[in-house]
């Protein structure tokens, strides 16, 4: 493998190369601590090993009798105290800078889901854009295979990276839908827990264009290792172009929930959605695994009355996440239709977005 | 000396109290001796055997983790099972291996060290031990429940715990029971120390091990109930509709973390203070010089304990605290380096101009000081809030706490086993084998855990079943080290512990260590079943019996 | 050590002989946790296992305590043991204080931090309609952020909690009178006031049972009434449980008094139960102020 720029390098020893002021400061603090600790370590253990070599019985050392000295004891209380304060001072400055999330150019909400990230551009250029970012399904499959091979961005490749402009202050608001996740990008020196029901924020201002990677850093269930973060930092022009493109896509995609779809369209769309959202647990062949139930042959899936399945998909239950905030009506219609007709479930039933709308209203 | 020689010499363990006229004082034999035990030494032995078993179980889980992480990709386990391994490894090591091991030491040594006949409440003492059995059965048994063992990490963070299967409840009840056991055990230790000391054994003459345990016991009774509260709230959230940790009902997942870490941080000192005590006994014995700065050792221990109550949120820097919170917890945490430093320096000063020999207990003690300090320094680095933002929840933290827990707590336990083992069993261990065990463990320990610092700095998150390619080499190295370390412990068990327990080896003298001080060396080896049935008369230093 | 002492002499140390009670009590608790864990997950047999475990455990405890009482009455407990009991009871009560501290902490955290934060401007992103007021039934407040909690009313201090306060305070007084009577050697008076104390405890529990009934049926205040219901029921519930345990202690002490146990000089069993009762009393005052009044 090769080093991954913006991500880990092969056998990297220290923090990732910083691309924000904060990350630089952290790197500096860390190096300072390393030097200080190493110095203390050498001093302290220099003394110890000197003593071990000199004051050993086999060399004829006879033990002295002292066992107290208020003077030295006060000294080695005060001196470490001063050292610790000297260490804490520069850190204080960085803490204050780190927490200052005011005056951002762009505000983006990052929502942790089991197991993907949802991004919504709330303020600034790009406002209104929103998408979900999931680990590339082929990487997940590589992991299962046990022999992933030499892939540079293994487990870090997502379908839709977060895109931001360079040299702009980006405020990230984190929250979560189910359990706690953490949004981290080492190169930016950013890590912020995403807590369900609460919002927290952090910020970064990337000073170099490029791709930067991070991973979910709070245990969030079985696919914890598979919800990476990929941030693409573009120059102002490219960013504007990207925003333009996204907004056009939104306009095009804005689907009308009263539209009536054909079976083929729903199945095609449903399969894509199933593979990227549902297959982690229920498996691509719908057979489920362990505590995750099989959909193939499931009575609920095959039922003529769609209400129970729609309710489950929308609201979740136990480990089954709620999808109502993640997927649109037409998407839920598509994926439910897909489960009703894929594998051996050839029920021939079609679920239209209108039904989803009705179920949501209940 | 008559106090201890009531019994015919050679009548070591377990039999021969035929002169006892009281009907239920015939020391029972066979399984009854152990199950119905009220003797502090027998109960201590039970604790030690239990904790070693749990160390094996937890260690095998660790090896499963390391086997899966040997290479990128999932080779052996699915991620769900992997999380169960991580969780159970942490829980079993903390609550099953390290804590009971120290209680075992307390049981064996504290009555001997302070000249008491037994623990203050002998039956409750046995109850504390036997409570661990149902708890351990429930914990280990949870692997076989539907959905498998709890997989939310040993910290059991809500709301992930709310998603877990039935085994979570088994785990919660098991922890309740272990908490009750710890509280009873601590009360016993406190009362024994405060009320059962032989005349002349003033608090400030007490051996350091007893001191550190006294302070640890206070920590335990202060924080175990808080843990019980936290997991009880988890339980009612799971089953009885409360919303302590559910925002939809007005609760807060972060509140769980505050309550948990109010327990959790003192908990890590619970696992290190008795270790400090053991090392403080061993270093003077082999330096042939009195412990330097006894009084400041006591004050330092107490300061660490007190400070430990106001630093808990250093585990939560990434949850998004206000600036003032981060600063407060950062400063308070870093302060702990000061009293801990005092302890390190006092040990150094004890060695300084001593007349040192390096038998196995001393090697482990020096190994402890050396490697624990590295763990302390990485702790300090974690305590710097801006750096912690980078390394929180990465392998750097895993490296930190294994340096303090394995090279700290576990090393001190081994040191203690070699130091007091002859007193327990009446048999000397083999010095060569002890040294092989030490050097093998020291090397493999560092091979296992040193590379984890690099992994963490480079950004590898913990509790990951699979990881990016770039982390492969260090992970492979760590896995190799882990298996080596595991084999060293198997070696210890087969070639050191088993022979000692079976009485194979040179007979231990009453005081195997030339310069060891303390009442435990005033009784024969192995220590007779009953000791100090009437309080011994002590000399002025309270280290020798004069009548 | 009792073994080396002839009967009737109080030993310097008392170390009981081997005992089967601890291991058997632990065996009972195994069934308790196994049963409870299975029962709440919908396995009916768990209830029987739980019940079996509890009965077994209670049975062993009576044997265990019975033995301890015989030892105590047999004069095997020296003054030193008495001091040991004092230390242990004191620190046990301290651990109970810490247990309640966790729940009081939860109450303060939710009132002082989570509810206001959930209703803050930043959080309007997630819960636009939630006004973060405590209790969540005050004018203008919504019961819970997600609107999943049914409307309920809170339990005010009047009248039941106030009556209960009076009951507990009175019971503290009657208990003290009983204690003085015991010291003065007036056994009949002691027993009378002890029964009164126990009765006050039972009355307290009766009122609390009624209060819960009232909460569930008239105020619609339930365990699942959001964070208010959670803290309310767990704090008052655990307190009630402690009242129950303290009442049992006092009851057994009373029965022992009637059997002629304890002397005017030595009666730590009595005092320990009294300490516990006062602790329960103090916790109640805390509850009365922060749960019902504020
Ligand atoms: C035995 C257990 C033990 C001990 C003793 C310690 C000791 C310390 N720990 Fe550690 N810690 C853990 C067990 C322990 N820890 C565990 C289990 C976790 C992870 C829990 C989890 O998340 O699962 C953890 C996590 C942890 C974190 C959170 C990391 C994170 O999750 O991001 C932090 C942060 O502040 C921290 C700090 C410290 C500090 C400052 C000390 C100090 O006490 C260290 C003091 C010692 C020294 C500093 C060395 C000796 C001193 C000198 C030689 C004097 C001279 C020195 C100077 C002047 C600098 N620890
Ligand atoms: C308290 C003490 C303690 C001890 C002693 C250990 C010991 C070890 N730990 Fe521990 N560990 C924790 C406490 C401890 N750990 C905690 C609290 C966590 C956090 C959990 C969490 O995240 O929730 C953790 C997490 C943790 C992780 C991170 C897992 C993850 O994030 O996913 C790893 C990974 O390498 C690890 C490895 C090891 C290893 C290799 C050992 C070795 O030292 C073990 C050595 C092995 C043995 C002693 C066993 C010997 C027996 C055999 C070898 C038997 C062989 C048998 C046959 C061949 C039949 N531990
Ligand atoms: Cu999401 Cu870990
Ligand atoms: Cu800590």
Write the layout of secondary structure elements.
The complex is a heterotrimer of chains A (362), B (547) and C (294).
Chain A: H1 21-54, H2 70-98, E1 106-113, E2 116-123, E3 130-133, H3 137-145, E4 162-165, E5 170-176, E6 181-185, E7 190-194, E8 200-204, E9 210-215, E10 228-234, H4 236-253, H5 263-282, H6 299-302, H7 307-315, H8 329-341, H9 353-361
Parallel strand pairs in A: 1-5, 4-10
Antiparallel strand pairs in A: 1-2, 2-3, 5-8, 6-7, 9-10
Chain B: H1 2-5, H2 30-35, H3 40-69, H4 79-114, H5 122-141, H6 160-163, H7 167-195, H8 208-239, H9 253-270, H10 273-287, H11 294-307, H12 323-335, H13 337-351, H14 360-383, H15 385-391, H16 395-425, H17 431-457, H18 472-501
Chain C: H1 21-39, H2 45-73, H3 79-118, H4 160-183, H5 187-219, H6 226-258, H7 268-293
Bound molecules: heme-A (HEA) (2 copies), dinuclear copper ion and copper (II) ion.
Brief account:
The complex is a heterotrimer of chains A (362), B (547) and C (294). Helices cover 40% and strands 16% of the residues of chain A.
Quickly list its features.
heterotrimer, A: 362 residues, alpha+beta, 3-stranded mixed beta sheet, 9 helices, 40% helix, elongated, C: 294 residues, mainly alpha, Helix Hairpins, Four Helix Bundle (Hemerythrin (Met), subunit A), 2 domains, 7 helices, 69% helix, disordered N terminus, binds heme-A, binds dinuclear copper ion, binds copper (II) ion, translocase (chain B), transmembrane (chain B), copper (chain B)
């Amino acid at each position: 493998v090769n080093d991954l720029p913006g991500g880990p390098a092969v056998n990297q020893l220290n923090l990732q190369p910083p691309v924000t002021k904060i990350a630089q400061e952290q790197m500096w603090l860390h190096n300072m601590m390393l030097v200080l600790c190493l110095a203390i370590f050498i001093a302290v253990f220099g003394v110890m090993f000197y003593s071990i070599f000199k004051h050993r019985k086999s060399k004829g050392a006879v033990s002295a009798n002292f066992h107290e000295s208020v003077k030295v004891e006060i000294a080695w209380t005060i001196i470490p105290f001063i050292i610790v304060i000297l260490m804490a001072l520069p850190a204080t400055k960085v803490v204050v800078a780190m927490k200052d999330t005011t005056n951002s150019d762009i505000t983006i909400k990052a929502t942790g889901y089991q197991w993907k990230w949802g991004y919504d551009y709330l303020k600034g250029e790009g406002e209104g854009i929103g998408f979900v970012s999931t680990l590339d399904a082929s990487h997940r499959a590589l992991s299962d295979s046990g022999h992933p091979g030499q892939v540079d961005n293994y487990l870090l490749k997502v379908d839709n990276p977060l895109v931001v402009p360079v040299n702009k202050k980006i405020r990230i608001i984190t929250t979560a839908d189910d359990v706690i996740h953490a949004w981290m990008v080492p190169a930016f020196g950013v890590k912020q827990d995403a807590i369900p029901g609460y919002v927290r924020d952090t910020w970064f201002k990337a000073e170099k264009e490029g791709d930067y990677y991070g991973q979910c850093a709070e245990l969030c269930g079985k696919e914890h290792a598979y919800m990476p973060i990929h941030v693409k930092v573009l120059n102002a022009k490219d960013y504007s172009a990207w925003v333009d493109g996204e907004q056009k896509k939104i306009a095009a995609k804005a689907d009308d929930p009263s539209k009536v779809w054909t079976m083929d369209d729903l199945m095609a769309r449903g399969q894509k959605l199933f593979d990227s959202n549902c297959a982690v647990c229920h498996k691509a062949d719908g057979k489920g695994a362990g505590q995750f139930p099989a959909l193939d042959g499931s009575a609920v899936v095959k039922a003529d009355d769609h209400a129970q399945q729609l309710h489950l998909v929308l609201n979740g239950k136990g480990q089954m996440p709620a999808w109502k905030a993640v997927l649109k009506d037409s998407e839920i219609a598509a994926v439910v239709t897909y489960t009703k007709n894929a594998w051996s479930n050839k029920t021939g039933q079609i679920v239209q977005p209108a039904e989803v709308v009705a179920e949501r209203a209940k | 000396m008559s106090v201890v020689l009531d019994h015919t010499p050679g009548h070591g363990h377990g039999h021969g109290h035929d002169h006892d006229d009281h009907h239920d004082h015939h020391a029972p034999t066979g399984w009854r001796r152990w199950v119905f035990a009220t003797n502090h030494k027998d109960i201590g032995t039970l604790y030690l055997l239990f904790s070693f078993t749990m160390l094996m179980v937890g260690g095998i889980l660790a090896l499963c983790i390391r086997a899966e992480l040997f290479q990128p990709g999932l080779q052996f386990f699915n991620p769900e099972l992997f999380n169960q391994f991580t969780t159970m490894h942490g829980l079993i090591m903390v609550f099953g291996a390290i804590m009971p091991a120290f209680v075992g030491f307390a049981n064996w040594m504290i009555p001997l060290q302070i000249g008491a006949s037994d623990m203050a409440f002998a039956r409750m003492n046995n109850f504390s031990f036997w409570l661990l059995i149902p708890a351990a059965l429930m914990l280990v048994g949870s692997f076989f429940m539907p959905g498998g063992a709890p997989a939310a990490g040993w910290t059991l963070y809500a709301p992930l715990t709310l998603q877990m299967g039935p085994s979570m409840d088994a785990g919660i009840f098991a922890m309740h029971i272990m908490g009750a056991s710890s509280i009873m055990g601590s009360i016993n230790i406190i009362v024994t120390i405060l009320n059962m000391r032989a005349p002349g054994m003033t608090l400030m003459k007490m051996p350091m091990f007893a001191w550190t345990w006294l302070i640890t016991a206070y920590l335990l009774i202060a924080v175990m109930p808080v843990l019980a509260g936290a997991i009880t709230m988890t339980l009612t959230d799971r089953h009885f509709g409360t919303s302590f940790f559910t925002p939809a009902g007005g609760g807060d997942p972060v509140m769980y973390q505050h309550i948990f870490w109010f327990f959790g941080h003192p908990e890590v000192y619970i696992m290190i203070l008795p270790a400090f005590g053991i090392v403080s006994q061993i270093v003077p014995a082999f330096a042939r010089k009195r412990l330097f700065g006894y009084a400041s050792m006591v004050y330092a221990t107490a300061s660490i304990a007190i400070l430990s109550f106001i630093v808990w949120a250093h585990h939560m820097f990434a949850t998004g605290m206000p600036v003032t919170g981060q600063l407060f917890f950062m400063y308070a945490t870093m302060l702990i380096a000061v009293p801990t430093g005092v302890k390190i320096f006092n040990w150094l000063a004890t060695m300084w101009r001593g007349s040192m020999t390096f038998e196995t207990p001393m090697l482990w003690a020096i190994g402890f000081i050396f490697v624990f300090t590295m763990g302390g320094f990485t702790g300090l680095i974690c305590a710097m809030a801006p750096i912690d933002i980078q390394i929180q929840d990465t392998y750097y933290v895993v490296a930190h706490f294994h340096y303090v827990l394995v090279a700290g707590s576990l090393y001190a336990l081994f040191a203690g086993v070699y130091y007091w083992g002859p007193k327990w069993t009446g048999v000397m261990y083999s010095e060569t084998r002890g040294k092989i065990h030490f050097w093998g463990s020291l090397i493999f320990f560092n091979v296992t855990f040193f590379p984890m610092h690099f992994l963490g700095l480079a950004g590898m998150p913990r509790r990951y079943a699979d990881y990016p390619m770039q982390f492969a080499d260090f992970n492979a190295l760590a896995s190799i080290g882990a298996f080596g370390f595991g084999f060293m412990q198997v070696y210890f068990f087969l070639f050191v512990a088993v022979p000692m327990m079976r009485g194979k080896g040179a007979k231990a003298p009453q005081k195997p260590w030339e310069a060891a001080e303390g009442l435990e060396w005033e009784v024969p080896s192995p220590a007779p079943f009953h000791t100090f049935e009437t309080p011994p008369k002590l000399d002025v230093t309270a280290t020798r019996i004069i009548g | 050590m009792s073994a080396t002492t002839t009967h009737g002499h109080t030993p310097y140390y008392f170390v009981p002989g081997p005992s089967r009670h601890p291991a058997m009590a632990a065996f009972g608790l195994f069934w308790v946790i196994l049963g409870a864990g299975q029962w709440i997950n919908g396995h009916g047999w768990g209830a029987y296992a739980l019940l079996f475990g509890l009965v077994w455990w209670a049975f062993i405890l009576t044997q265990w305590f019975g033995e301890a009482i015989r030892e105590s009455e047999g004069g095997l407990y020296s003054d030193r043991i008495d001091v040991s009991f004092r230390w242990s009871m004191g620190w046990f009560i301290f651990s109970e204080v810490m247990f309640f501290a966790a729940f009081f902490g939860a109450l303060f955290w939710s009132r002082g931090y989570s509810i206001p934060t959930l209703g803050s401007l930043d959080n309007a992103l997630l819960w636009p309609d939630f006004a973060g007021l405590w209790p969540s039934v005050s004018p203008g407040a919504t019961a819970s952020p997600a609107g999943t909690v049914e409307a309920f009313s809170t339990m005010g201090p009047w009248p039941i909690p106030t009556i209960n306060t009076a009951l507990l305070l009175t019971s503290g007084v009657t208990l003290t009178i009983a204690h003085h009577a015991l010291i003065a050697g007036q056994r009949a008076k002691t027993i009378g006031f002890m029964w009164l104390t126990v009765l006050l405890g039972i009355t307290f529990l009766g009122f609390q049972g009624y209060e819960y009934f009232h909460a569930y049926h008239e105020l619609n205040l339930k365990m699942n009434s959001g964070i208010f219901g959670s803290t309310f029921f767990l704090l008052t519930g655990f307190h009630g449980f402690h009242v129950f345990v303290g009442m049992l202690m006092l009851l057994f002490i009373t029965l022992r008094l009637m059997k002629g146990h304890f002397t005017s000089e030595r009666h730590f069993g009595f005092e320990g139960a009294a300490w516990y009762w006062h602790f329960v009393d103090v916790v109640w005052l805390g509850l009365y102020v922060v749960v019902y009044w504020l």
